[in-house]
Amino acid sequence: MESEGEHYDFERNVWDEDDYGTLKMSMAELKQFITKSMVEKSKLDACLDIFLVELRDIPNEADNKLLDFSGYTGKSNDKLQHAASKLRENIDTLLPGFLELPTGSNILENEKLTEKLRDRVDRLGRDSLSKSEFGTQSFHAAQKSFLDTLVSRYCRQSSHGRTNSEPAPLSESAFDKSCQQLGQFISGEKASATFACGGSVSIGDNLPPGTHDVSPPVRISWTAKDGSCEHKAMLPVSGSNQLSAEQLAQLVSDCEVARFGKGEKEIVDPEYRKAGKLDPTRFLSSFHPANLQILDDVEQLLAPNFNSLTENQLPFRSLKAELYKLNVYSGPDGLFRKHVDTPRSKTQIGSLVVCLPSAFKGGRLTVRHHGNVVDFDWSARSDSVIQWAAFYSDCEHEIKEVTEGHRVTLTYNLFVTDSGCGSIPRNVNIDPKTLPLYQLLRDLLAKPGFMKEGGILGVHCSHAYPHASSQAQELLPRGLEGADLAVYSVLKSLGIDAHVLPVLREKHDDDLEEVAVGDMLRFLRDGEEFEPTFAQIPQILPVESDLEKYWKMLYLSRRLHGTRKIMQFAKERKLMDPGLFQDRKGNYFGTELHRYSVDQHMFDMGEPISEAVNRHWPAQFIPGITWISEPLNKEMAFSYLAEGNEPSINTFYSCATILAAVPPFDQRQPTRERDAGKVHTDGE
């Protein structure tokens, strides 16, 4: 996007340097005037739209001329008068005194109103008005969610004050600090959003072939300590099966004492590590993480990949799991104190620890990375499910004391390998509570002052995805990787409505900006009133039956021209806080993941951006987004032939983003977590 910090001299033709001391109006008065004008315009347009929807469905004998009221006869005229009566009632409700009509007069004969109706029809487009979808088309799920959130926030911010018992919003500096902390956690130099992850797999019998989300009981066979015979065991141990319990005891007995590395030596110190172990040469197991797609889940979160789309085309770098050890930590004092694993090769990136179903208490696995901590406490379900954790090699971790029972684990070393082109990623099942980001975001949302009135949280995807391709709808969100997958999964698990959508890297309507900011500057200098200009995207919103809600949707979905430059002007001239217009800044978001398109018809190079977007790339303007990260990758969104001094191709670009509708604090307290524990990324 074009930098908003660049210098320009657009005010040169409006006033001279000597005029700066003679301002008649303040920036606050300018904002108040613009807001009042746009609110009144939105209220009127809401009333007109509802009338036009009803009018469109009334038969007209005047060659389908919508506003030729002489063509409505008989029953059609009765319906017309009913619609007109409703229009008058709506206008009197929202804009008292606007019509200034005597009681009983015909509203459709009011010249002021009919002129407004004609303007509105021209604005919406007669072709659109003739379509049956006008006024009844449904919102996309994301569009409705975001507009509802914006309307709710607007209503709350417009209400009078707060009671003493209500929490105050965070100060601007505290809010910025919280957002900065979240952004650094996700995409900073020491990003920690995905240093660890985990999940669980249920146990079942007589499973059909190809089952990936349930495991049969795990069978283990091993040689005795002296190599004289082979033993077998099945986990979980049945409470009534004495033989199974004896087999588990035999497994524990046949384990060697586990050592740990210190310098170049391997030593035994029960105060530092007390556990048993079997090397892979001594045992076999029916369990493998690839069979249950655990490796795929870990790969999508932890495998290193590149932000360049050319290096990351849907085949991701894949992971190979190499069995390293079987370990047993037994009560009452099995443990392993803080340590960092030594990678076995340059391609090793981490470890996978699989806890087999065997009852125990204690034994919590704690993983640390750059001051962030994730705990894996498996004791509560240790007797009935397989549980696992994966983490990077540079993570410090420890195993707290096992106070009772036997904690049996398989440890795998994870190596990164190159892979050929793959297919669309499958659905991912992870436990978001095991992600490092979970606690940070949960704590933020639990703060009464953080986005107290609700709002929209935006995160630019860290990785490159072909989000404008024909496969985009299948790829996202299920194909999210690393920090992107963590962000999306954690938001969903906390009950936050999140969507993956493209945001337009927009170009600026310089001509429209010049005109609009000129009007604003003349208002500041002379108090000269003007009609604010704005882009309305989409040009037609589905008409809400709730009149109050509909006009607010119109108001919030309109982009004010001149905002960018007047904010910069205020900053340069130190007239007032340039953030005064911050709530009118926003972005164009695709209503869904649009496929790249090319229009070979010729259009005017100087046409407003909003018209180009409306024609080629259905979008929604969303103001006041709280951005957590900067855009890193882009794709061509649409192109068209532009007619200027010489014909050229005009191309717009978009970035993939995760957009979340954060509810107000009183609706997210306590934080609404999903009971299932797992988040499925199979769709929106």
UniProtKB/TrEMBL annotation:
Domain Fe2OG dioxygenase residue range list: 320-418
Superkingdom is Eukaryota
InterPro entries per the UniProt record, alphabetical: Oxoglu/Fe-dep_dioxygenase_dom
Q: Can you say what this protein is called?
A: Fe2OG dioxygenase domain-containing protein
